[in-house]
Amino acid sequence: MPTTRTGSRRRAGRGREGARARFVLRLAGVVYLGALLALAALVWWPSERLWPVTLFLFGPRWVFALPLALLVPAGAIADRRLAAALVVAAALLAEPLFGFCIPWSRVLDRSSSDASVRVATWNVGGGVEPGALGLMMALESPDVVVLQESGPEAIEAPPGWHRHVEGGMALLSRFPILDAAARDPKDMWELAGSGAVVRYGLDTPLGRIDLTSVHLETPREGLESILRFGPGAASELVAKNEQREIEARVARRWVDESPSPLRLVAGDFNTPVESHIFRDHWSGFRDCHSAAGWGFGFTKRTRRIGTRIDHVLAGPGLACASASVGDRQGGDHAPVVVEIRLRR
């Protein structure tokens, strides 16, 4: 009889310990989900108006998913409802917080014809391998290529192609170039910015398309100052963010002056799609990777960090049929290749 009472006490003790463990696990899950929701709110509302958000947007976002790798297996053992809630929350936050894209437009295709134009954009200033441009064109078969920080690789267009090169910005096109207008970037240079903007009119099977190639200011120097000197150097990052917003505003104004209603914008924006700078100044345009690409679509990588800062944007009347990211081929940026069709 005493043995029975002892066994009952042990079972009761284990039951209390299990209940405490489930409570702690649930509390950790709730705190983690709350932290993710708070982070999402910061990213999508004040965004880079608060300079620490810039650290998240350009930093190793994957770090914030590490608790999930611990909580989901633990929840699957101790509390399946918690595990299910965490999986659902992770799925819902994968795109708005971590930038994971699913190509829904391929399922809900709203293009009006089979005619299409393949457009590639590539910042080749980071030391791409010799012959990289020709290899990319052979693999991806683009109809139009815009290059930023271009050098000798853009001097020779393929036979039968049209070419325009100015100030490190280059265009290679199967289609005739109707006109080209480059914005004078000297005012941006005086502000220690970049501000390279060139607009091309192209005679394509879809009609005249005005394609604007951009290379806008990077926050790199401000981020490096924070890493080197700590939060006391935040003023430099704030200044860089202000410059980025100025250049986005100027570039959008240049795009809006396009004579054609069919407009594309492509290039190195140095801004992820979650940034308020991107959302405020490129509203009305659809980011093709967000609409038709798969996965994270990182266009710039370091050993620990991947970011998507190179984009092709389609204006009203144009649909993104597909989007992919090519091989960096030794450079620090990867090319973005999209297929454009007319929208119904």
Question: Explain this structure to me?
Answer:
The protein contains 11 helices and 14 strands. The mean pLDDT is 91. It is α+β, with helices and mostly antiparallel strands and 344 residues long. Helix content is 41%, strand content 23%. It has helices at 2-44, 51-58, 66-78, 80-93, 104-107, 132-140, 186-190, 220-229, 234-256, 276-281, 288-292; strands at residues 117-123, 144-148, 162-166, 169-173, 177-182, 196-204, 207-215, 263-268, 286-287, 300-301, 306-307, 310-314, 318-325, 336-342. The strands form 3 sheets. Strands 3-4-2-1-14-13 form a 6-stranded mixed β-sheet. It folds into 2 domains: 2-93; 104-342, Endonuclease/exonuclease/phosphatase (Deoxyribonuclease I, Chain A).
State the main characteristics.
globular, 11 helices, Deoxyribonuclease I, Chain A, alpha+beta, six-stranded mixed beta sheet, 344 residues
Spatially, the strands of the biggest sheet line up as 3-4-2-1-14-13
Distance between the termini: 82 Å
Structural class: alpha+beta
Question: Can you tell me the residue ranges where pLDDT is under 50 for at least 5 consecutive residues?
Answer: none
Describe the SSE topology.
Layout: H1 2-44, H2 51-58, H3 66-78, H4 80-93, H5 104-107, E1 117-123, H6 132-140, E2 144-148, E3 162-166, E4 169-173, E5 177-182, H7 186-190, E6 196-204, E7 207-215, H8 220-229, H9 234-256, E8 263-268, H10 276-281, E9 286-287, H11 288-292, E10 300-301, E11 306-307, E12 310-314, E13 318-325, E14 336-342
Parallel strand pairs: 1-2, 7-8
Antiparallel strand pairs: 1-14, 2-4, 3-4, 5-6, 6-7, 8-12, 9-12, 10-11, 13-14
Helix pairs in contact: 1-3, 1-4, 3-4, 8-9
